[in-house]
Design brief:
VAC14_Fig4p-bd, ARM-like, ARM-type_fold, about 0% strand, about 675 residues, mainly alpha, 35 helices
Length: about 675
């Protein structure tokens, strides 16, 4: 009967199928000798026959011993063929690689050993089958058997050497998809395998891995979260190498594509991934210049929350994010390339992101956003004008009511800039913009009286520093007069405005303006404020003292006898007496000993202050004012020495009679309101 395994003898077939390794090894050596002989005789047909038999009847057999014997024999065949292995490489390695996924651990081990021997002989001839080999290796490195893992490492090193030798012919385009498919695996061994291959290829001078970096960058950053420190360090080293190459030759890298990847990674919950992503963004900002501004909205989304990090563990992330933020600001401010840089900036998505971060964000993030908004309004105010309407509600409703004073102050800076940027060109002042803004602000105060009491002073004082204080006061007064404002809110608002007027150093010029109401402009402002100040009798008194209308002050004090004296009233009088001793009212104290206007000012003022003294209970304020009045010469209080033509009031065009009538009218309204409230509380 003809031997079905010819030219392999039946004895050799039996030995090759034996369960003992030694017998299989002897049979493999016999096959190696046979192949050597056939090769010498150039009888490659018989060699092909041997390979086919080994592949079909042994390696693909269901008998594990036959598989093991066939695997050893195929390796022996390759050794015998030497360089001629290339002619049969596909027939040899394909059956071997199929055994790498066998369920039998020993079969997998012999398959890996056999593959190593074949690759060692064939070397560059295996490169056309590199994808299959790479797939096989990627499985072997995660095999549960340590012997197989160790064998795979030897094969891996061999294959890397071969690729290095044949780097000029290595198909990188076929390799990258293999990496991309496996780079997201969670196994530490598989990750180590992937990193090692990328590192090896990146080190080859003839291979430019940076070109393909956008395709694998996401996966590399994910490897940074591996639990093994060794894998993390390997990945960090590889990323550092890539960044060094990019910095040396930015033109060779696709920075825009990678920036999109980095923006996503910079929002990772893993601190290490986040740090490296933002570090790369920082480098890209410096390398790309203005072009990076086309990614501004995404970069803001990534870095702005990081500015609020407080823990020491995240300090490096915060510092890096802050550096990115400052670099972007510089790009927008750079006068030399300003127009070119701004051409890359798409304001719509940028403002959408900034507006979102103004709500429900930590204080440092809000501060950074507000500074950006202010910066954009100063640099590109024409383009930013269309965004003002959407920003206003957020700035007013959210930022001004923020618990942080710093946020409130910065929000006011932005609001002031918006109002200023909306004014007409040239030197003309657009009062309409001020009015619209102040109406909204007053509505906000009206809706929340607590907000007015806690933040009103801070907000108004800052506005007066940044905007035209005269127009702010005049406009507030006009709004309070014209709009239907709750009387209580109106009086609270007046008290707030009055206290700011009397105590803020920034309003020095405004106070000086009110000192001399003989000036027509000053008189107009005084009349406007007076009608509004009428909601609060003590504030009206303070305004008149500031304007040096001492005769009228005396008349108002006399009227206090007919006004209901409440606790709030006495508290305000007490505060006013304290202010009289402040530097603001130095001129008032000097007026008590002044000979001007035939002593009229001094006498009216003395009489008014004595009237206030009589209203006060004997508190500290009483003794303070009493001590001051003890210094006033008695003869100045004599009524026969006062001439109505000598007073400040007689030398200006202010209609004090009409103002006094209006004051009494407003006070009657407040009295009626109190009476109605008492009646309502009784039922």
């Amino acid at each position: 009967m003809e031997n079905a395994f010819a030219p392999i003898s039946e004895a050799c077939v039996k030995a090759l199928s034996d369960k003992t390794y030694d017998k299989r090894k002897v049979a493999a050596l016999e096959i190696e000798k046979m192949v050597t002989d056939f090769k010498a005789k150039k009888n490659m047909a018989q060699v092909k026959r041997i390979i086919d038999v080994l592949s079909k009847d042994f390696v693909r057999s269901n008998d594990s011993n036959k598989k093991k014997g066939g695997l050893i024999a195929l390796a022996a065949t390759s050794i015998a063929l030497g360089k001629d292995t290339e002619r049969f490489i596909e027939d040899i390695i394909n059956p071997i690689m199929n055994c790498l996924i066998d369920s039998d651990m020993r079969v997998r081990f012999f398959a890996s050993e056999s593959l190593y021997n074949v690759v060692k002989v064939a070397r560059g001839a295996v490169l056309p089958y590199f994808p299959s080999l790479f797939n096989a290796l990627s499985r072997l490195v995660t095999d549960p058997d340590q012997n197989i893992k160790s064998g795979s490492e030897i094969l891996d090193r061999l294959l890397k050497d071969i690729v290095n030798e044949s780097s000029q012919t290595f198909d990188l385009d076929a390799f990258i998809p293999l990496v991309r498919e496996r780079i997201m695996v969670k196994s530490s061994f598989a990750r180590q395998f992937i990193i090692s291959w990328i590192s090896v290829l990146n080190a080859v001078p003839e291979i430019n891995m940076v070109i393909y970096l956008p395709e694998i960058l996401h996966g590399l950053f994910q490897i940074l979260e591996d639990p093994l420190p060794e894998i993390q360090r390997m990945c960090e080293t590889l990323l550092a190498q890539f960044l060094k190459i990019i910095k040396a030759d930015p033109a060779a890298a696709d920075i825009p594509k990678m920036t999109n990847v980095l923006i996503v990674q910079a929002q990772s919950s893993n601190p290490l991934i986040q740090f490296y992503a933002i570090s790369w963004i920082k480098e890209f900002v410096q390398l790309s210049g203005g072009e990076i501004l086309s990614f501004a909205s995404g970069i803001f989304t990534a870095i702005l929350p990081c500015l609020a990090f407080e823990s020491d563990a995240k300090k490096n992330i915060k510092d890096c994010a802050n550096a990115v933020n400052l670099n972007l600001l510089e790009l927008v401010s750079n006068e030399e390339d300003k127009q070119k840089n701004l051409s890359y900036l798409d304001l719509n998505p940028v403002m959408e992101v900034l507006r979102q971060y103004l709500v429900h964000s930590p204080v440092p993030t809000k501060i950074a956003v507000l500074k950006w908004v202010h910066h954009l309004f100063t640099e590109v105010h024409d383009e930013m004008s269309e965004h003002a309407n959407k920003l206003f509600p957020v700035l007013l409703r959210d930022c001004l009511s923020d618990s942080s004073d710093e946020v409130v102050l910065q929000a006011i800076v932005v609001l002031a800039e918006i109002v200023n940027s909306a004014t007409v060109k040239g030197n003309d002042f657009d009062q309409t913009q001020y009015r619209q803004f102040l109406v909204e602000l007053l509505n906000l105060f009206s809706e929340n009286n607590t907000f007015l009491e806690k933040r009103g002073t801070l907000i108004i004082r800052q506005l007066c520093r940044l905007l035209n204080a005269e127009y702010i006061y005049r406009t507030f007064a006009e709004i309070l007069l014209e709009e239907r404002i709750n009387l209580k809110i109106a009086s609270t608002m007046v008290r707030t405005l009055n206290m700011i007027l009397l105590t803020t150093s920034d309003l020095f010029d405004l106070r000086n303006m009110l000192h001399d109401i003989r000036n027509e402009k000053s008189a107009s402002l005084f009349e406007c404020l007076y009608k509004c100040w009428a909601h609060c009798p003590v504030s009206t008194l303070s305004l008149c003292l500031l304007a040096q209308c001492y005769q009228h002050v005396s008349e108002i004090v006399t009227l206090f006898a007919d006004i209901e004296i409440t606790v709030d009233f006495l508290v305000e009088i007490d505060k006013m007496v304290q202010l009289i001793e402040s530097p603001i009212f130095a001129s008032l104290r000097l007026a008590l000993i002044s000979h001007s206007n035939d002593n009229a000012n001094a006498q009216h003022l003395s009489r008014a202050l004595y009237g206030i003294l009589m209203l006060l209970p004997q508190t500290e304020a009483f003794h303070l004012l009493n001590n001051r009045l003890q210094c006033v010469p008695n003869y100045w209080g004599q009524p026969n020495k006062i001439s109505s033509k000598s007073t400040n009031e007689s030398q200006c065009k202010v209609k004090f009679d009409e103002l006094f009538t209006y004051f009494k009218y407003v006070q009657d309204l407040h009295h009626q309101k109190r009476v109605e409230k008492r009646k309502k509380n009784q039922f």
